[in-house]
Amino acid sequence: MPGNGNELSARAPERVPDQGRSDDGLLAVRAGEGDEEAFETLVRRHSPVMLQLATRLLGSRTEAEDAVQDAFVSAWRKLPEFRGESAFRTWMYRIVTNRCLNQLRARRPATDLDSVPEPAAPEHQSSPARVAESHAATRALAVAMAGLSPEQRACWVLRELHGMSYETIAETVGISLQAVRGRVFRARRYLTEAMSAWR
Q: What is the Cα gyration radius of the chain?
């Protein structure tokens, strides 16, 4: 695979304008023909959001970086088979989500809370009490999310945190539309109950 993968850990998630994605299909075709520069462009363009997704699913930045790196290695190998029936980004969502689901299913039930990323609040707006409350709420959410099945967690994260449509989630996870709706509903209900003290 081209590159050494360091770009995955060095960059912060960022949004790329949709008009810049119109050439993804062409880049994917060129990469499938062995064009390493085309593939490196796709990696740079899509790795931030894929890393964000994997971190949210796995709760560990280190595991997420490994999962995304493995997903791009897998994509590089499978690119000659990529037919463009779905967008390259959707295809990558599917590969990363499946890799994360496999890792979640293989895990022991316990979640290491120290590995859960906590959003840092800007110092000028935060008192020590507010920071402590924010950290406690983040930990409570991590504990609550650990109570979801891997499939519920994936559907909830894709819907609530990545704004995907139910149809795209069904395609990404490889399940029916009805199953996606059911998993998102059950995940929402469970998390609402688990986080009731924080409302």
A: 18
